[in-house]
Amino acid sequence: MSELDLEGLAGELADFAPAKKKQAAYTAREERIIAGFEDIVRFFEEQSRTPQHGKDRDIFERLYAVRLDRLRAQEDCRALLAELDEHGLLEQPSIGTEGKAEFDVDALASELSAVESEEDITQLRHVRSAEEKRAAEEIARRDKCHDFEKFKPLFEQVKQELASGARVTRPFELKAEIRPGAFFIVGGLITYVAEMEDIFTNAQGRTDARLRVIFDNGTESGMLMRSLQRQLHDDDAGRRITDPAPGPLFADTPEDGEAEAGTIYVLRSKSDHPFVAEHRDVVHKIGVTSGSVDARISGAEKSSTYLLAGVEVVATYKVYGVNCQKLESLLHKVFAEAQLDLSIPDRFGHMVKPREWFAIPLQVINEAVDRIRDRSIISYRYSPSDGRLERIID
Fold first, then answer.
1. How far is CA 222 from CA 137, 184, 225, 227, 287, in A?
2. CA atoms of 243 and 228, how far apart (whole Å)
3. Taking every annotated instance into account, which residue ranges of this chain make up the domain Bacteriophage T5 Orf172 DNA-binding (predicted)?
């Protein structure tokens, strides 16, 4: 674990001092400024107010307040963040500054040290890095899950399967066990990984991904994969919950009183990536969602998952009584040989590899869905060389 000394803390805040002439691409300093401002925006959206100064405030709120003051004071910072400042935070005057004193790096460093340890606060070896502080905030930040009714039956089913022995708990061991559809026990709560964004490499050269994690008490968190991994390792009672024995995948029509479970969707990209543009008619993204397809693809132009471009919905298939994650995994397994190996730069120029894009004719996808419905799909795999589904020979 990296340690942040006094000079490191001062250096982090010094990022908001006047800079040299801005270059065409984001510099490391500009990336840190943007990331720091996104922390402030997230605070504003959660608290409905700007971070404020004051000894009675949380230490992180006070740090955000200092950071916001410095951003407001620098013209180059305001210019850099103008497009991201949808709430007008950089134009607002500082509020809640009663009793505000000149910013004291030593005092702030001591307080941060005290957060980590009850030992002598003059010892800075316990001060956390910026990444660790963000991770701690993510762990603590749990919001009300507004669509919990959609997930509640999953938790009830898991509890029943644990009671019947269809599922069991095991010690958590590998980061690879964290995947969409996986269940864990963290802090005494059953925890469900509902979504995972594209895997990326963080500043320390380690792989990570943003998750949507649902807890059985009706809350959720948008934590990082490594944050969940850390919680599972640090919690003596932390466990993973095994998958149950597989059963029928889905029915093609709903039974009486059975709610629709999800939608298989097929998307076509409007990206100008050379390979995608040349093969647009056969390059498709295949996924399964338990919600609205329109909501799922909202903001596609800003997400590397969708190649940072708009998408066209070319086909949808309603499914009932289905485990959406298992169905999606099955489809991706069937078409694994046709999965694209594309790398695109994100907004900071870091290369990411979007998943779930395949070079497959639409008629073959239609055939695969039909074979899923008649349960014969387990005997087939897609052959890119022949452009069709082929029966597996035992």
1. 11, 16, 9, 10, 21
2. 19
3. 278-372
Sheet of strand 311-320: strand arrangement: 311-320, 260-269, 283-289, 357-359
pLDDT at 122: 36
> Mind listing the domains of the chain with CATH numbers?
6-138 (no CATH), 143-241 (2.30.30.30), 260-391 (no CATH)
**Residue closest to 209 by CA, chosen among 189, 194, 219, 220:** 194
The Cα 377–Cα 370 span in angstroms is 8
Task: Write 42-50 long-range contacts (CB < 8 A, 24+).
Answer: 44/87, 44/89, 45/87, 46/141, 46/143, 49/95, 50/89, 50/92, 50/94, 50/95, 50/96
Helices vs strands, H then E, count in the chain: 12, 17
Show the CA angle centred on residue 240, arms to residues 238 and 245, nearest 5°: 155
What integer pLDDT is reported at residue 212 of this predicted model?
A: 92
Query: Strand 169-171 relative to strand 239-241: parallel, antiparallel, unpaired?
Result: antiparallel
Strands 183-186 and 283-289: unpaired
CA distance 227 to 43: 19
Q: Whole-model pTM?
A: 0.39
> Average pLDDT per run of 10 along the chain, which is 394 residues long?
51 54 64 84 84 78 84 87 85 50 47 42 43 50 86 91 79 82 91 90 83 92 89 87 59 49 88 89 90 86 84 87 80 90 76 84 90 76 89 65
Rounded to a whole number of angstroms, the distance between the first and last alpha carbons of the chain is 50
Residue entry with tokens 């009850």: 118
* Separation CA 136–CA 140 (nearest Å): 6
- What distance in Å separates the CA atoms of residue 85 and residue 19, rounded to the nearest whole number? 20
Tell me the DSSP string of 262-274: EEEEEEEE----H
- The residue assigned the tokens 């979007």 is 354
Angle in degrees, 0-180, between the axes of helices 6-14 and 105-116, rounded to the nearest 10: 120
Judged by DSSP in three states, 343 sits in: coil
Neighbouring C-beta atoms of residue 12, cutoff 10 Å: 18
